[in-house]
Design brief:
single chain; alpha+beta; Thrombin, subunit H; 4 domains; 7-stranded antiparallel β-sheet; 6-stranded antiparallel β-barrel; globular
Length: 474
Amino acid sequence: MKTLLLSLLSLFLVPFTANAQAIPFEPQVPQSAGQMQLSFSPLVKSTAPAVVNVFSKKTVRRSASPFSGDPFFGRLFGEGFFGPRERVEQSLGSGVLVRKDGVIVTNNHVVNGADELRVVLADRREFDATLLLSDTQADLAVLKIDAGDEDLPIMQFHDSTEAEVGDLVLAIGNPFGVGQTVTSGIVSALARTDVGASDYSYFIQTDAAINPGNSGGALVGMDGKLLGINTVILSRSGGSHGVGFAIPSVMVERVVDAALSEGGDHVVRPWFGARLQEVDRDLAASLGLDRPQGALVSELYPKGPAAKAGVLRGDVVTKVDGHDVNSEQGLRFRLATHKVDETVPLTVIRDGKTMALNVRTLAAPEAPKRNEIVLEGVNPFAGAKVANLSPALAQEIRTDEFAKGVIILAIAPRSAASYYGLRPGDIVESVAEIEIKTVDDIRDALDANDGESRWPVSIVRNGRPTSAVIRLRS
């Protein structure tokens, strides 16, 4: 007697061969014992060769000093006294061949910081890999191997916007390093934005078992095409609990295209230039909406793409490119699947009326120029790397795109800035009672107060203003 799960799978499964085209069909109840014995095997045989193992190595340098981090003894007995300690870390993940010339897509967290990358194909051939693009915001990376003139097995992209809850899927990868493994399940949910695994969270959720090592592997639809890249699981034990998430193929394809056709070390993504607010029940009632929907425009960046498209404060954006959006995350994801300098249709509700607008996608401007410098001297900011904020920099470092002023990007270890409690992400408002708007301002303020022991400082940390008087210690 076949299990109930097998019965459910057979409702939708269509026999598949490597060269077969997708055949339209209607779901139906199995009519015979033979239909109850349908198998995923032909589908697996045609897709599994395109899924690879990705091995990465990186050398981590750490202080061997037992006093590392101590403000006094660390200076006396630091790395220079004990010498650094090196350790090689190795990690294993999965990847998917998407071009016959050896282009592979995987998760960025699989290869992040690697000194050496090696790819093992399903037929056990091994190749050194080159990193073409590392996209930390989407948690995707594009690699390339050189297999000579040989055409490699690939997986084509499936349009993930066509996916529906309940669709059958396969997850293929290398969990726990045991070797290539296939699991089956369904699309459990779409447009998951509260997972927090990347800046562009808009995941496909699946109950197909995904475990450590599956990261970067393929979520495959019943047409044998790539529906998404398996990325993260929710688990209390570290193993699969049936709640896994995959990056949709429309985002994956955009990143691959950027790596191959646009060059550069990062993906240039469209900028909307508006602050959005999710519409809940109370807000929907106050706006005269029959139900919570869309995202409310609460602030517009002057002369930004949204403002130029005719979007007004108080508009509710309900669709982007014909797809429903209900949050800022959803809108950012939909725009991010487009290139810069494209026209994207919007649907907005204004004063109870539905309107169609078109936004021309633009890159976030870097105005003012960031002017990164490391502050020096005898002052509380010595060792802090600072820059002028702009929408482009804010988008890059994942902070408020409407924020202005001077932001601390990094703090040198055992520096004065570290000792006095400054942190990356702090926005400097004033130093020694001098207002700070640019990097030049903070440099001038430090020079003007040079030699003083008393330093009044005002910063914004995590959106909250904080003031203090720092007294330098000799």
